[in-house]
Write a structure and sequence with these properties.
Chain lengths: ~500, ~500
C-alpha cells in the first residue's frame, strides 16, 4: 500500500473524523444546540475534498480496491447533500434524545461514511465491509426512540439486513469461486473469457446462481419487490429523519453499487440480455405492488414506504434499459442518476414537512395533515410540490427524471415497461393527491397555526427549491450525471 | 410594432401574476390584480392574433437540455393556435369576472385561475413536443384545486376523476412522444411531420397514431372516454366550468388537429371512418343524453359532448382530393363552442348564485325577474343550436358542407343532431326561464354591473363571428392550409 492512496479517501476520512469530533464535543459540552451547526459546517470539509477530487482524473488505489471517479463523486455529492438535509431537519426532532444527541448525529455521519466508501469500492470484500458500515449505524438509529415500535424497527432492520448480507456474501463467494478474484475488473475479464463461445449465462449454473444471490442482496438495500418486506415497518417505527435518510441515501448507494458491478463485471452481452429481462420484470412488479398497497395506507410514513418501493421500481427501469440490441447504452444509467438526484430533493422535502408537522401533532397519520393549508401555508405548499414531483407532474424534477428514465426504456425497445411505468404513475397520483386533498380540503380538529421550527423548515425549503429549480432547468444535474456515467461506461 | 418575446410574455404574465397573488396579495387586492393581469393578457393575445401573420414570433432556446436529449424551449404561433390563444385570453377575463363574488379563499382562487390560463397558453404555443406535454400536465393542477375546493356536490370525486382520466390519456401520449423521439431523434414538432414517414419506429405507426390520439380523445372528450366531463363540469365552480368547457376541451381538439392530423396525415386518412363514426356517436349519443338532464349545468356539459362530435366529424373529412373546408369548420367549431358554452355556463352560474338551485323543474318564470340573464341564455342557446347569424351556425354549416363529400351518411345523421340540439336547448330555456312565475323567486334580482361585462363580451364575440366569420375562419383556414402543405397531404 502506498500512503499516497490515502489521498483518495480523504472525504471519507474527514467524514469519519467529523463523527468522532461530534461525539467528543458532545461529551465535553452541555450545549447541544451547537451540534447541528457543527455538523453542517463540518460537512463542508468532505464536500470540499469531493469537489477537489472532481477536478482530477479518475484514479484507482489500495491495490485496486477503490476507485475515485466522477461516478463515485456524483454519489458522494448526493450522500453529503442528503446527510446535511437530514441533520438539518433533525434539529428539533433530536431534542427528545436528551443526552444522546451526539451519538445520534455521529451515527448518521458514520453511516454516511460507509455509503461514501461504497460509492467508490471496486472490490467485493471492500464492498461488503462498506455495506456493513452503512447498515449497522442505521439499525441503531432506527431503534433510537426506545419505544416499542422503534425497537421493533431497529431489530427488523438489523436481522433482515444481516440475512440479506449473508445472501449477498454467498453470491460473492460463488463469484469468487467462478473467477478466482475479488476485484471487479478481474472478475469481468474472467467471465468474458469463460463465457465466450458458450450460449450465455444459462450454461454456467454457478454464475447464474451467484447473479441471482447478488441481486437478492442488493434488492434488499433498494427495497425492491420481493425483498421489500422490511421497508414499511422499519420506515414507520424509525425516527422520521432516519426514515428519510434510509429512503434516499441508502437507496442511492444501493443503485450506485449495482451499476458499478453491472458495468465492471457483467459487461458482457450474453449476460446483460438475461439481466435485462429479469430487471424489467422485477421493476414492473415493484412499482405495481408498491403503488397498489400505498393506496390503502393511513400512516404517512408507511405510505411513503410503499411509495419508495414503487419509486425503486421506476429506477429499476433504468437498469432494465441497460442494453439496446447488443451494445451497452448510457441512457438507462443516466436516467437512474438523474432520478436518484431528483428523488433525493423531493423525498427529503416531504420528510422534512412530515417531521415539522409531527412535532406539533404528535402522530404520523395522514389525518394529522388536515387543514394544513390554514395552519401553515408554507408547509402545505412544500408538501404539495413534493407530492406533485413524486407523481411526475411538471414543473418539478420528478417529471424530468421520469421523462429520462422512461425515454431510456423506449429507446431500448422496452416500450411495454415504459407503459407499465406511466400507468403506475397514474395510479400513484391517487394516493399522493389524497395527501394534498387532506391538506387543502379537510378541516382540522384544532385550528392553531403550526410554527415550524427553523431546522426542518429550512431543510424543506432547500429541498423544494432544488426540486423546482432543477425541474425547470435540469441541465446541471444531467451534465453531472453524464460525466459520471461516462467514467464507468467506457 | 414588433414585440420580442411576446409569446413568452403571454405564457409567463399569468404564471408570474399567479405567484405574485399567492405571495403578496390578499382578498380584494388579489381580485383587482388578477383582473388587471387578465386584461393585459387579453391585450397581448389580441395583439398576437392580429399580428401573427406579419411577424415571425417564434422563440427558440436550445441550451435548455443537452444536445443528446434535444428538448428545446420552442414557441411559435400559426393560424391554428392564434384564434385559440385569443379565446383563452377572452375566457380568462370572463372567468375572473365570473368569480368576482368568490368569498372563500379568494386569493387562492385567483391564483389558480391565472396559473391555469398561463398553462393553457403554453399548450397552444409550444412547438416542442416535451414542452407541449409539460404545459399539458401543468394545467391539471390548477383545475384540480379549482374543482375540489370551490366546487359543489361531489366536488372531490369529480376533481379526482378529471385528473385521473386526463393523466391516463396523457400516459399514452407520453409513450407516443418518447417513441417518436426514439425514431426521429427530435422533439421539434415542425420537423417531426417530415421525418415520421421515413423514421425507424419501434412500434407500428398505426399504434403510435392511436396512442397519441387517445390522449387527445380523452380531453376532447370522445365517447367512451367522456364520463369525466359531466361530473367535472357540473361540480366545478362557474369560472372553472367556463375555462373547462371553453378552453380545456379545445386542447384535445387542438392536439387532434396539430398532431394526429398534422403529423400522421396518412393514418388519419386511413382511419377517417373511425373518426367519423365516433363523431356521429358523440353527436347523437351526447344529444340524446342531454335531453334527459334535469340539472342545468349537467345539461350543458352533455351538450358539449355532442358539440365536440362535430369537431371529430370535421377532422375526418380528409384526403382523396377533399378540401380542408371541414377541418376549418372543426377548428371554427372549437372557437365558437368556447364562446357559446362559456356564456351558457357563465349565465347558469350567475342564475344559480341567486336561485340556489339548478334543478330545471324547480326553476321557471325567471324571465321577468332577470331579463338580462334571460337574453344572455337565449342568445347563447340559439347560437348553440346553430341559428343563422350566430357563430354556431357558421361552424356547423362549414363542417356539414366540408364533410358531406367524404361521409354522406354520417353527415346526414349528424345533421339530425342539430334537431336534437334545438329540442333540448329550447325546452331547457322554456322550462327554466319562462312559464308562470314562482313565489320563491320574487325577491331575486338581475345581473349586477360587474356581471354584465363578461356577458357582453361573449355575446359580442358570438354575434360578431356569426356575422363576419372570416375574421376567425380565414385565420384557421390559412393555418390549416400551411399545416397541410408541410405534411405534403395536399
Amino acid at each position: 500500500m502506498n500512503y499516497i492512496d490515502l489521498e483518495l479517501i480523504i472525504p471519507e476520512i474527514s467524514m469519519a473524523l467529523l463523527a468522532g469530533l461530534i461525539i467528543v464535543f458532545d461529551l465535553f459540552s452541555s450545549n447541544k444546540r451547537l451540534l447541528v451547526p457543527l455538523c453542517l459546517i463540518g460537512l463542508l470539509v468532505p464536500l470540499f475534498f469531493c469537489i477537489a477530487a472532481a477536478q482530477e482524473s479518475a484514479e484507482a488505489g489500495f491495490m485496486g480496491t477503490m476507485q475515485v471517479d466522477d461516478f463515485s463523486i456524483f454519489f458522494k455529492y448526493v450522500i453529503i447533500l442528503a446527510t446535511a438535509l437530514v441533520i438539518l431537519s433533525s434539529a428539533t426532532y433530536a431534542k427528545r434524545f436528551d443526552n444522546h444527541q451526539g451519538e445520534y448525529y455521529s451515527l448518521i455521519l458514520l453511516s454516511a461514511t460507509g455509503m461514501m466508501l461504497l460509492a467508490s469500492a471496486t472490490e467485493l470484500i471492500t464492498i461488503y465491509i462498506a455495506l456493513e458500515l452503512t447498515a449497522l449505524p442505521t439499525a441503531a438509529l432506527a431503534a433510537f426512540i426506545r419505544e416499542k415500535k422503534s425497537a421493533e424497527s431497529g431489530m427488523k432492520f438489523l436481522i433482515l439486513s444481516a440475512v440479506s448480507s449473508a445472501v449477498l456474501l454467498y453470491g460473492m463467494v460463488l463469484l469468487y469461486g467462478f473467477t478466482g478474484s475479488t476485484h471487479l475488473s478481474d472478475i469481468g475479464t474472467a467471465i468474458a473469457t469463460q463465457l465466450s463461445g458458450s450460449a450465455g449465462i444459462t450454461d454456467h449454473g454457478v454464475l447464474l446462481f451467484s447473479v441471482i444471490l447478488i441481486t437478492a442482496g442488493f434488492g434488499f438495500k433498494i427495497s425492491a419487490v420481493p425483498f421489500q418486506m422490511w421497508a414499511p415497518d422499519v420506515y414507520e417505527g424509525a425516527p422520521t429523519p432516519i426514515t428519510a435518510f434510509l429512503s434516499v441515501a441508502s437507496k442511492a448507494v444501493g443503485f450506485a453499487i449495482i451499476l458499478r458491478i453491472l458495468y465492471m463485471v457483467f459487461e458482457n452481452e450474453a449476460l446483460s440480455s438475461d439481466w435485462t429481462s429479469m430487471m424489467a420484470v422485477l421493476s414492473a412488479i415493484s412499482m405495481s405492488v408498491g403503488n397498489l398497497i400505498a393506496i390503502k395506507q393511513n400512516n404517512i410514513k408507511r405510505m411513503l414506504a410503499y411509495s419508495t418501493i414503487a419509486q425503486a421500481g421506476y429506477i429499476m427501469v433504468g437498469l432494465a434499459a441497460m442494453t439496446s440490441d447488443t451494445t451497452l447504452n448510457t441512457s438507462g444509467p443516466l436516467g437512474i442518476l438523474v432520478y436518484l438526484a431528483g428523488y433525493t430533493f423531493t423525498n427529503l422535502a416531504a420528510f422534512a414537512v412530515i417531521t415539522a408537522v409531527s412535532e406539533s401533532s404528535g402522530d404520523d397519520s395522514i389525518d394529522s395533515f388536515s387543514g394544513l393549508i390554514k395552519k401553515s401555508p408554507i408547509l402545505a405548499g412544500i408538501m404539495t410540490i413534493s407530492m406533485i414531483s413524486l407523481i411526475g407532474i411538471p414543473p418539478t424534477i420528478g417529471f424530468m427524471a421520469k421523462i429520462y428514465i422512461f425515454g431510456a426504456a423506449v429507446e431500448t425497445n422496452l416500450t411495454w415497461l415504459a407503459f407499465v411505468g406511466v400507468i403506475n404513475s397514474v395510479i400513484s397520483a391517487y394516493y399522493y393527491l389524497r395527501v394534498v386533498k387532506t391538506m387543502f380540503l379537510n378541516s382540522a380538529s384544532e385550528q392553531s397555526p403550526i410554527k415550524p421550527s427553523i431546522g426542518p423548515l429550512s431543510a424543506a425549503v432547500i429541498s423544494i427549491v432544488g426540486t423546482v429549480a432543477f425541474g425547470l432547468y435540469p441541465r446541471p444535474i444531467i451534465e453531472l450525471a453524464r460525466e459520471a456515467i461516462s467514467t464507468i461506461v467506457g | 410594432m414588433e414585440i420580442p418575446g411576446i409569446l413568452s410574455i403571454a405564457i409567463f404574465l399569468p404564471l408570474i401574476s399567479a405567484v405574485i397573488v399567492a405571495v403578496f396579495l390578499n382578498g380584494k387586492t388579489a381580485r383587482g390584480f388578477a383582473l388587471g393581469a387578465s386584461i393585459m393578457e387579453l391585450m397581448i393575445t389580441g395583439y398576437i392574433f392580429i399580428a401573427h401573420k406579419q411577424y415571425d414570433m417564434s422563440e427558440k432556446l436550445t441550451t435548455w437540455f443537452p444536445e443528446s436529449f434535444p428538448v428545446q424551449y420552442f414557441l411559435a404561433i400559426d393560424g391554428i393556435s392564434a384564434p385559440l390563444i385569443l379565446l383563452t385570453g377572452l375566457l380568462g377575463i370572463v372567468s375572473i369576472f365570473a368569480s368576482w363574488n368568490v368569498s372563500e379563499r379568494t386569493k387562492e382562487h385567483f391564483m389558480w385561475l391565472l396559473a391555469l390560463q398561463g398553462a393553457v397558453v403554453g399548450v397552444f404555443t409550444s412547438m416542442d413536443f416535451l414542452l407541449f406535454f409539460l404545459f399539458w400536465e401543468l394545467e391539471l393542477i390548477p383545475m384540480f384545486f379549482l374543482i375540489s375546493i370551490w366546487g359543489t356536490g361531489r366536488k372531490e370525486y369529480s376533481a379526482m376523476k378529471f385528473l385521473i382520466f386526463t393523466i391516463l390519456g396523457s400516459a399514452f401520449m407520453l409513450i407516443g412522444i418518447l417513441v417518436i423521439f426514439a425514431g426521429t431523434g427530435t422533439f421539434d414538432m415542425m420537423k417531426i411531420s417530415a421525418l415520421l414517414p421515413t423514421a425507424n419506429l419501434i412500434m407500428p405507426i398505426g399504434i403510435l397514431f392511436l396512442f397519441m390520439s387517445i390522449g387527445f380523445a380523452v380531453k376532447l372528450p370522445v365517447f367512451p372516454f367522456h364520463t369525466w366531463l359531466p361530473d367535472a363540469h357540473t361540480d366545478a365552480p362557474t369560472a372553472a366550468s367556463v375555462m373547462l368547457a371553453g378552453v380545456l376541451l379545445k386542447m384535445g381538439g387542438y392536439g387532434l388537429l396539430r398532431v394526429s392530423a398534422g403529423m400522421f396525415p396518412d393514418q388519419l386518412e386511413k382511419y377517417a371512418w373511425v373518426l367519423a363514426l365516433f363523431g356521429v356517436i358523440n353527436i347523437i349519443y351526447g344529444a340524446a343524453i342531454t335531453i334527459r338532464q334535469t340539472d342545468l349545468k349537467r345539461l350543458i356539459a352533455y351538450s358539449s359532448v355532442s358539440h365536440m362530435g362535430f369537431v371529430l366529424l370535421g377532422l375526418s373529412a380528409v384526403g382523396g382530393g377533399i378540401t380542408s373546408l371541414a377541418m376549418t369548420g372543426a377548428a371554427l367549431q372549437m372557437f365558437t363552442h368556447g364562446t357559446i358554452t362559456g356564456l351558457l355556463f357563465l349565465t347558469i352560474g350567475f342564475i344559480y348564485e341567486r336561485t340556489h338551485t339548478r334543478h330545471i323543474p324547480d326553476l321557471g318564470g325567471l324571465a321577468r325577474r332577470m331579463p338580462i340573464f334571460t337574453v344572455s341564455l337565449v342568445v347563447a342557446g340559439l347560437a348553440s343550436l346553430g341559428l343563422p347569424g350566430t357563430s354556431g351556425f357558421v361552424a356547423e354549416v362549414t363542417i356539414f358542407v366540408g364533410a358531406f363529400p367524404a361521409f354522406k351518411i354520417a353527415t346526414i345523421i349528424a345533421a339530425f343532431g342539430v334537431v336534437l340540439t334545438a329540442g333540448y336547448i329550447l325546452w331547457m330555456i322554456q322550462r327554466s326561464m319562462f312559464g308562470p312565475e314562482k313565489p320563491q323567486f320574487e325577491q331575486i334580482g338581475d345581473a349586477t354591473a360587474v356581471q354584465v361585462i363578461p356577458i357582453g363580451i361573449l355575446i359580442i364575440s358570438i354575434i360578431a363571428v356569426g356575422i363576419y366569420p372570416a375574421f376567425v375562419s380565414d385565420v384557421f383556414a390559412d393555418g390549416i392550409a400551411q399545416m397541410l402543405i408541410m405534411t405534403g397531404a395536399n
